[in-house]
């Protein structure tokens, strides 16, 4: 196998990997609907809608919780 | 120290809003001038033979492209970042003296960089690489500006209150990383002063002239990997960042599907970087690479339309807002033009279509329905939304905004329709031959035929520029108006009649 052939196989498997990865991601997003911390993905839209400096964060950074 | 409530600090955003408008006027005015130069070549020497060196098409063309891309658009990206970044991370620039200093430093270095670009390009210093014409000292300055922007992005993220990063922030980060990678690799260059000849004599070169570190076809490949992805990471990714913030905010509607926005993001990142090969169809690059460029360009429709449809569906049930607000009109038409040009681009990248389209004005038409319709409209809408909040004044005139919208829309339509006809006419005439294979037309025949379309294109550009002056006037009057308003907590921007 010369370098070109090797690159062609490598390229093919990279594309397959990316396609599988992306489709798994779609499946994951729509099946779970919520991320690992239990927040519904759609809830994150509120970061733009409620973006005043004193709005309650969708998910505050931890040291804010302690205050 | 008095105990004032914390507020967002838009100082740096305001500074970049100013350069967005000024460089927009400069870049678009040069564009209109050179468009008319193509239609009426006498304009090349309209300021006298002595100045012709500085006013001819080839000297001004890179000034046009660089001023609108790296002046108008990049300023718009910076301006919106220093606005959106604070708001979605719920942290104020006023909370960090360091970030405020870095932001201002970035602005002033950027202004110096722009001045250096304008002067050097006018003087004729160029690397001759499209969209990468700046000579190496300016490249270094640009890298410094970019790194400072990175410090601002990650600095602000570092002190944020909102733990999650809103989708726009993802897109801004991708812009930062993407351009950094592209710019560094494509601008690897050696001053000719350091490159001695094989015979050994030294110092025959020039400090202000450099050659690429890549040779021949490799140079072309790196150049169009850069050139196409400059479209990706300057004209697409950061503009999506803007629309994902400003359209939901102005309309008060949550994004139709946040999941779709995440998916489209990764889709765009995976696919875009492979599509640049379509600029080199039928050239000396390997055939498989050309095919790959075509295929990835076609696949690119999916993530592009994912974002665009997501934006249009965000307006579901709220279409009366499109009729009522010229600001929403700008954004809805922007995402429509995004769909339009991301369908047109893949069609042009198909080899058999490209055989007609390549090197013709159809390509120029394609670029402009994307930049005028999508990039220009979105940045204009973003600045209109920001103005009442950063200046704390009511937007000066809704009717002027509506007039601007229709004038510019007409300008874009004239621009791309004339370029479609011109481009396809060119392509067909270049290929036409008789039964013995002799070409049917000489080059000047095509130039004769294209004249009316070039004049129409110039007119379209002029209308767009006129609309941009209305925009500048509207923002100026908002800035200096006495109608104070606290729009900080509103969705729809307050506008005067």
Can you tell me about this structure?
The complex is a heterodimer of chains A (67) and B (497). With 67 residues, chain A is mainly α. Helix content of chain A is 58%, strand content 0%. Chain A is built from 3 helices and no strands. The longest helix of chain A has 30 residues, at 3-32. Chain A is elongated and about 60 Å long. Chain B is mainly α. Chain B has a single domain (11-192, 214-479), classed as Cytochrome C Oxidase, Chain A (Up-down Bundle), CATH 1.20.210.10. Helices cover 70% and strands 1% of the residues of chain B. Chain B has 17 helices and 2 strands. A two-stranded antiparallel sheet of chain B has the order 1-2. Chain A binds chain B through residues 8, 18, 22, 25-26, 29-30, 33, 39, 41-49, 51-55, 57-62, 64, and chain B through 5-8, 87-88, 90-92, 160-164, 166-168, 244-245, 248-249, 252, 254-255, 257-259, 262-263, 266-267, 270, 288, 488-489, 491.
């Amino acid at each position: 196998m010369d370098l070109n052939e090797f690159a062609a196989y490598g390229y093919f498997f990279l594309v397959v990997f990316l396609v599988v990865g992306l489709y798994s991601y779609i499946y994951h997003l729509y099946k779970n609907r919520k991320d690992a911390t239990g927040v519904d993905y759609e809830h994150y839209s509120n970061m733009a809608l409620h973006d005043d400096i004193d709005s309650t964060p969708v998910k505050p950074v931890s040291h804010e919780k302690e205050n | 120290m008095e105990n004032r409530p914390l507020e967002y600090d838009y100082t740096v955003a305001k500074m970049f809003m100013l350069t967005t408008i000024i460089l927009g006027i400069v870049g678009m005015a040069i564009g209109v001038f050179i468009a008319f130069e193509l239609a009426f070549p006498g304009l090349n020497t309209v300021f006298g033979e002595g100045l012709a060196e500085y006013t001819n098409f080839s000297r001004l063309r890179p000034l046009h492209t660089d001023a609108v891309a790296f002046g108008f658009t990049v300023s718009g990206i910076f301006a919106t970042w220093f606005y959106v970044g604070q708001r979605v991370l719920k942290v104020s620039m006023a909370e960090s003296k360091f970030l405020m200093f870095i932001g201002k430093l970035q602005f002033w270095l950027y202004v110096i960089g722009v001045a250096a670009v304008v002067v050097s390009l006018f003087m004729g210093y160029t690397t001759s690489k499209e969209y990468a014409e700046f000579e190496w000292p300016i490249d270094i300055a640009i890298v410094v500006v970019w790194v400072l922007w990175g410090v601002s992005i990650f600095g602000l993220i570092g002190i944020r209150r909102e733990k999650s990063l809103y989708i726009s922030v993802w897109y801004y980060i991708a812009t930062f990383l993407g351009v950094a990678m592209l710019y560094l690799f494509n601008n690897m260059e050696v001053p000719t002063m350091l490159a001695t000849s094989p015979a050994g004599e030294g110092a025959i070169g020039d400090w202000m002239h450099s050659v690429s570190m890549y040779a021949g076809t490799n140079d072309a490949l790196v150049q169009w990997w850069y050139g196409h992805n400059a479209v990706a990471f300057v004209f697409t990714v950061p503009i999506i960042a803007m629309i994902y913030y400003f359209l939901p905010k102005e309309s008060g509607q949550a994004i139709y599907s946040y999941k779709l926005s995440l998916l489209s993001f990764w889709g765009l990142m995976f696919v875009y970087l492979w599509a640049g090969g379509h600029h080199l169809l039928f050239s000396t690059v390997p055939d498989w690479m050309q095919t790959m460029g075509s295929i990835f360009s076609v696949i690119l429709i999916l993530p592009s339309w994912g974002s665009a449809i997501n934006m249009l569906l965000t307006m579901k049930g709220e279409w009366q807002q499109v009729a009522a607000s010229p600001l929403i009109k700008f954004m809805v038409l922007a995402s429509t033009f995004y769909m339009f040009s991301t369908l047109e681009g893949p069609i042009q990248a198909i080899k058999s279509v490209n055989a007609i389209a390549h090197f013709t004005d159809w390509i120029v038409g394609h670029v402009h329905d994307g930049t005028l319709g999508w990039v220009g409209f979105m940045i204009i809408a973003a600045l209109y939304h920001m103005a009442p909040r950063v200046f704390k004044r009511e937007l000066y005139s809704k009717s002027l905004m509506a007039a601007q919208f229709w004038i510019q829309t007409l300008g874009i339509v004239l621009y791309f329709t004339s370029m479609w006809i011109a481009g396809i006419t060119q392509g067909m005439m270049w290929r036409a031959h008789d039964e013995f294979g002799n070409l049917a037309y000489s080059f000047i025949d095509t130039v004769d035929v294209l004249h009316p379309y070039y004049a129409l294109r110039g007119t379209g550009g002029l209308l767009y520029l006129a609309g941009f002056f209305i925009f500048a006037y509207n923002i100026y009057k908002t800035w200096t108006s006495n109608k104070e308003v606290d729009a900080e907590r509103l969705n729809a921007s307050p506008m005067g009649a």
